[in-house]
Amino acid sequence: MIAVFLLVVFGVLFGIHFYLWKRLVKDTTRPGRARLIGTLALVAMVLLVVGGLVFGRLMRPDAARWVAWPGYLWLATMFYLLVVLLVLEVPRLVLNLAWVRRRRETEVAPEPALVPAAAESVDPPADPPSALPSPARAPDPSRRLLLARTMAVAAGVTSVVTVGYGVSQAMGPPRIDRVRVPLAKLPRQLDGLRIALVSDIHLGPLLGRSHTRRVVDTINGVGADLVAVVGDLVDGTVAELGEAAEPLADLRARFGSFFVTGNHEYFSGYAEWIAEVDSLGLKVLENQRVEIEGLDLAGVNDVTGEDYEHAPDFGKALGGRDPARPVVLLAHQPVQATEAAKHGVDLQLSGHTHGGQIQPFGALVRLEQPVVSGLGEVDGTKVYVTNGAGFWGPPVRVGAPPQISVVELRSS
Question: Can you provide one Gene Ontology molecular function annotated for this UniProt record (predicted)?
Answer without folding.
Answer: UDP-2,3-diacylglucosamine hydrolase activity
